[in-house]
C-alpha cells in the first residue's frame, strides 16, 4: 500500500448505469458543470453558485483528511432521445440477434472440434441475422405490394382511392408498392451508419485481446462496413424478387418484357445469394479465428467493390419498378416469399441450437471447477433461445402490423401463411398464460412453505440488522424477492423461447402438410389475431411514447441501453455500441489524472456502469506503467458482474477474467452490494453462509488467488465486509450528522448515500480507511415513565 503524502489527492470518476441520470445526481451535488467531453460523453464536476467546478468532500485516512475530486462521466445522451428510442424499439429483434452472438460459449484453445464449431456457429448467426433483414423486407412487401398496391389500389376497389384515375395508372401502383421498400432500406442504411466520434488524446490501441481480462474482446469490427452493405444488398435484392413474381416464378409477360423481368429477377436472386454467402464467410475479429481466414473476402469487399454492389442493387430495384407495368390482383410472390424466408430462418435457428449443444459441452471444461451459482446459464446454450426469440418476435411484429393495417383499411386479403402465424401466437399466448400462472403458483408456494417452517432464508440480513427488528422484517422480505429474481430471471427467456417454439410446431406442421386449419384451431387463431394486434399496437405505442414523451418510455430506454453495449457483430442495423466510445474516453481521462504523481484515481460504476468501469480498468492495467497502475482503484455498486454477465456472456466476461482483474488490482477492487437489490449482487465472493454469528464465504484474494476468506468484518457504518464485497444494511443505519440519508429500502438506487461509500473509495484508492465509527445522533434523556419508549428500529 502506498503511503499518502501531503500532496495526495483522490479523483473519484463515477459512471452511471442504464437509463441515464442527471449530472447533479451523479456527482451528488445541487449543481454540476461540464469540464470535458463533447456533449454526448460528458465529464462533469460539482459546481458552486457561480457555476465553478469545486472538489468533493474529503476522505479520511489514518486520522487525517485527504482531498477528493468527484467527477462523473455522463453517457446517457448516446442512447436517450425520442427519435433514437423509437428506432431502437422497431429494431429490437435485430438487437437480440446481435446480442446472441456475444453469448456464444468460449472456444478452448487447442481444441480443433470446438474451433470448427465456433466458426460454424458464428456463420449461422450471421446468416440468421441476414434472414431477419430479408424477413422484414418481405413483410413490408406484403403490406405495400400486395395489400396496398395490388388490392387496395386495384381499379374499381373501394379501398382508399382505388377507384380514382391515379390509382388505376400502372406506374402509380408500382411506385406505391416499391417506394416503402426503398424507404425502409434507406432507414436501415442511415441507422447502421450512425457511429460515435471518440474524444481521446493519444490513447494507444488496446492490445488486450489475449489478456484474459473482462471485456478484452469488446472491440470494433472491421467487417461492419462490409456486413452493412451485404444486408442492404440482400434487402434490395429481396424487394426485386418479390416485386417480379417471387423466389420460384417470375411474372408472366410477353416478348422482351418477360425476358427483362426474368433477367432482373435473377439479378435479385444473385444479389441475395452473394449477400448470404458473404455474411457467412466474413471473419470474426474477437479472436475465435486467429489466422483471419476471411481476410481475402474483406479485401474483395473493399470500398470500391461495395459501392459497385450497392449501386447495382439500387439499379435493380429501379428496374423492377419500371418493369412492373401490370400489377396483378394478388402478389403471390409476397406470400411465398414470407413462407420461404420464415422456413429458412427456422431451419438456421434449429441448426444453431443443435451445434450449440456440443460446443457448450466442449467449453464446459473452462467452468466445470466453478461453483454451480457461477456457471453459465443453460450450460452455455443461452444463445439458441435468444436467437429463436429474435426470429419469432421479428415474424410476430410484421404479422401484427399487417393484421392491424388490414383491420384499419377494412379491405384486403393477407397471405395464407399468416393464418398459421395467428395459430402460432394463439398457442403461444395460451401457453404463456399457463406458464405465468404456474410460475406464480410455484413462487407463492415456496414462499409460503418457507414462512410456515420459519425457515431463515435471509440470515445475512439478520446479521446486518441485529437489534433492529423493524428494519430486519422489511429487509428480509425484500431480500427474498431479490434473491428469487436474480436466481430465475434467465428462466423467463427460456420459458418465452420454449412457449414460442412449442406454439410454432403445430402451426408449421399444419402449413407444410397443406392442411387447412381444423375447427379446433379456430379459437387459437382468434386469440393469435388478438395477440398479434396487441403486439403491433404495443409496439406502435412504445414508438409513439419514445418519440413524444421520452421520460415515460423507460422500458424502451432500458432495453436500448442494454442492447447497445455490444458492438455490431452479427447484425449491423443495431444501435451503435456506446462502449466503444465510453471506455476509450474513460481511459483517456484516467491517464490524464494519473500523470500527476500525487493523484490516485478510483473508477466507480453503478449497475451497467460497473461493467464499463471494469472494462476501462482492465484496459488501463494493460497500458499503464507499474507506478501508475498501483494508483488505480475500482468501486462497483449494484453490479451484475457475477450473477449476470459471466453467466450470459461466458466468452466475453468469464469468471476467470474477473479473478485476473481482482488479482491485478491487489485488493483495490471494492464492491458495494445489497441483498435487497434484485438487479445487483455480490461480485468478488460466493458460497456465502452464516455460521455461529459470522458471515463466511469464498472469493478473490488480494494476492490474485481464489478460495476461502476470513470471516466478514463489521465496518464502522454497520456494513459487513467479506473479501472485496461490502454488504450494506438496507434500510440504512443512521441518519448520521453531516451526511445525506436515504430512508427506507433503497434496493438498486442511491448507493452513494450510504456512509460505506466513502470508506470503499478510500480502500480502493489504497488508503488506510480504518477510522473510528461515525458519530451517532444525540439522544435526549428522559425521566423514567415520562413517556412510552419508542419502538426499537
From TrEMBL:
Query: Could you tell me which InterPro entries the record lists for this protein?
Result: AB_hydrolase_fold
Q: Which UniProt keywords apply?
A: Membrane, Transmembrane, Transmembrane helix
Does the record's keyword annotation contain Transmembrane? Answer: yes
Q: Quick check: keyword Transferase in the entry?
A: no
Q: Where are the transmembrane segments?
A: 124-150, 170-191, 229-248, 260-282, 308-329, 341-363, 384-408, 420-443, 492-512, 524-544
Protein name stated in the entry: Integral membrane protein
Amino acid at each position: 500500500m502506498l503511503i499518502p503524502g501531503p500532496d495526495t489527492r483522490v479523483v473519484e470518476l463515477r459512471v452511471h448505469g442504464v437509463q441515464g441520470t442527471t449530472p447533479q445526481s451523479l456527482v451528488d451535488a445541487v449543481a454540476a458543470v461540464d469540464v470535458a467531453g463533447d456533449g454526448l460523453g460528458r465529464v462533469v464536476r460539482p459546481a458552486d453558485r457561480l457555476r465553478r467546478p469545486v472538489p468533493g468532500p474529503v476522505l479520511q485516512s489514518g486520522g487525517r483528511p485527504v482531498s477528493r475530486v468527484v467527477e462523473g462521466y455522463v453517457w446517457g445522451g448516446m442512447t436517450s432521445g425520442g427519435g433514437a428510442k423509437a428506432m431502437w424499439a422497431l429494431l429490437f429483434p435485430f438487437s437480440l440477434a446481435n446480442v446472441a452472438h456475444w453469448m456464444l460459449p468460449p472456444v478452448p484453445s487447442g481444441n480443433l472440434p470446438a474451433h470448427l464449431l465456433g466458426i460454424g456457429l458464428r456463420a449461422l448467426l450471421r446468416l440468421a441475422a441476414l434472414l431477419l433483414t430479408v424477413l422484414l423486407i418481405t413483410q413490408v412487401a406484403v403490406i405495400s405490394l400486395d395489400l396496398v398496391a395490388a388490392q387496395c389500389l386495384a381499379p374499381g376497389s373501394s379501398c382508399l382511392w382505388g377507384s380514382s384515375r391515379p390509382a388505376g395508372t400502372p406506374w402509380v401502383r408500382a411506385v406505391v408498392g416499391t417506394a416503402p421498400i426503398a424507404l425502409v432500406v434507406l432507414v436501415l442504411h442511415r441507422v447502421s451508419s450512425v457511429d460515435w466520434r471518440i474524444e481521446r488524446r493519444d490513447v494507444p490501441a488496446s492490445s488486450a485481446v489475449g489478456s484474459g481480462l473482462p471485456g478484452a474482446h469488446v472491440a470494433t469490427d472491421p467487417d461492419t462496413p462490409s456486413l452493412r452493405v451485404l444486408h442492404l444488398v440482400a434487402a434490395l435484392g429481396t424487394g426485386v424478387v418479390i416485386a417480379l413474381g417471387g423466389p420460384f416464378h417470375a411474372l408472366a409477360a410477353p416478348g422482351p418484357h418477360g425476358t427483362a423481368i426474368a433477367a432482373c429477377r435473377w439479378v435479385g436472386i444473385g444479389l441475395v445469394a452473394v449477400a448470404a454467402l458473404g455474411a457467412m464467410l466474413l471473419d470474426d475479429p474477437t479472436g475465435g479465428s486467429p489466422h483471419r481466414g476471411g481476410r481475402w473476402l474483406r479485401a474483395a469487399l473493399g470500398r470500391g467493390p461495395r459501392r459497385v454492389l450497392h449501386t447495382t442493387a439500387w439499379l435493380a430495384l429501379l428496374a423492377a419498378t419500371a418493369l412492373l407495368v401490370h400489377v396483378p390482383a394478388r402478389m403471390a410472390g409476397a406470400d411465398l416469399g414470407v413462407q420461404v424466408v420464415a422456413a429458412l430462418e427456422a431451419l438456421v435457428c434449429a441448426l444453431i441450437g443443435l451445434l450449440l449443444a456440443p460446443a457448450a459441452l466442449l467449453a464446459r471444461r473452462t467452468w466445470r471447477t466453478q461453483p454451480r451459482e457461477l456457471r453459465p446459464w443453460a450450460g452455455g446454450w443461452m444463445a439458441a433461445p435468444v436467437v429463436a426469440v429474435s426470429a419469432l418476435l421479428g415474424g410476430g411484429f410484421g404479422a401484427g402490423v399487417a393484421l392491424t393495417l388490414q383491420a384499419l383499411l377494412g379491405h384486403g386479403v393477407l397471405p395464407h401463411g399468416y393464418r398459421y402465424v395467428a395459430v402460432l401466437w394463439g398457442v403461444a399466448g395460451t401457453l404463456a398464460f399457463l406458464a405465468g400462472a404456474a410460475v406464480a403458483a410455484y413462487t407463492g408456494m415456496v414462499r409460503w412453505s418457507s414462512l410456515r417452517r420459519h425457515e431463515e432464508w435471509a440470515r445475512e440480513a439478520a446479521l446486518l440488522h441485529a437489534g433492529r427488528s423493524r428494519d430486519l422484517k422489511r429487509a428480509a422480505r425484500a431480500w427474498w424477492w431479490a434473491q428469487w429474481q436474480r436466481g430465475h430471471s434467465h428462466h423467463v427467456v427460456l420459458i418465452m423461447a420454449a412457449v414460442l417454439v412449442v406454439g410454432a410446431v403445430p402451426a408449421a406442421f399444419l402449413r407444410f402438410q397443406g392442411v387447412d386449419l381444423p375447427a379446433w384451431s379456430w379459437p387459437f387463431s382468434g386469440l393469435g389475431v388478438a395477440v398479434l394486434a396487441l403486439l403491433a399496437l404495443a409496439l406502435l405505442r412504445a414508438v409513439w411514447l419514445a418519440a413524444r414523451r421520452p421520460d415515460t418510455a423507460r422500458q424502451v430506454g432500458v432495453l436500448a441501453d442494454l442492447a447497445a453495449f455490444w458492438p455490431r457483430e452479427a447484425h449491423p442495423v443495431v444501435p451503435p455500441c456506446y462502449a466503444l466510445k465510453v471506455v476509450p474516453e474513460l481511459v483517456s481521462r484516467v491517464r490524464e489524472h494519473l500523470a500527476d504523481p500525487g493523484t490516485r484515481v478510483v473508477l466507480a460504476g453503478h449497475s451497467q456502469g460497473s461493467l464499463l468501469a471494469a472494462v476501462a480498468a482492465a484496459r488501463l492495467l494493460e497500458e499503464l506503467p507499474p507506478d501508475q497502475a498501483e494508483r488505480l482503484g475500482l468501486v462497483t455498486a449494484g453490479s451484475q458482474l457475477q450473477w449476470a454477465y459471466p453467466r450470459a456472456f461466458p466468452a466475453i466476461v468469464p469468471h476467470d477474467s474477473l479473478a485476473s482483474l481482482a488479482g491485478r488490482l491487489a485488493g483495490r477492487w471494492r464492491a458495494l452490494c445489497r441483498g435487497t437489490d434484485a438487479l445487483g449482487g455480490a461480485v468478488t465472493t460466493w458460497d456465502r453462509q452464516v455460521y455461529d454469528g459470522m458471515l463466511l464465504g469464498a472469493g478473490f484474494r488480494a494476492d490474485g488467488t481464489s478460495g476461502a476468506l476470513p470471516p466478514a468484518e463489521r465496518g464502522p457504518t454497520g456494513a459487513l465486509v467479506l473479501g472485496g464485497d461490502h454488504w450494506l444494511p438496507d434500510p440504512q443505519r443512521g441518519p448520521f450528522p453531516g451526511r445525506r440519508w436515504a430512508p427506507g429500502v433503497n434496493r438498486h438506487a442511491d448507493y452513494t448515500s450510504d456512509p460505506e461509500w466513502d470508506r470503499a473509495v478510500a480502500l480502493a484508492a489504497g488508503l488506510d480507511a480504518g477510522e473510528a465509527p461515525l458519530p451517532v445522533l444525540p439522544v435526549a434523556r428522559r425521566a423514567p415513565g415520562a413517556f412510552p419508549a419508542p419502538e426499537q428500529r
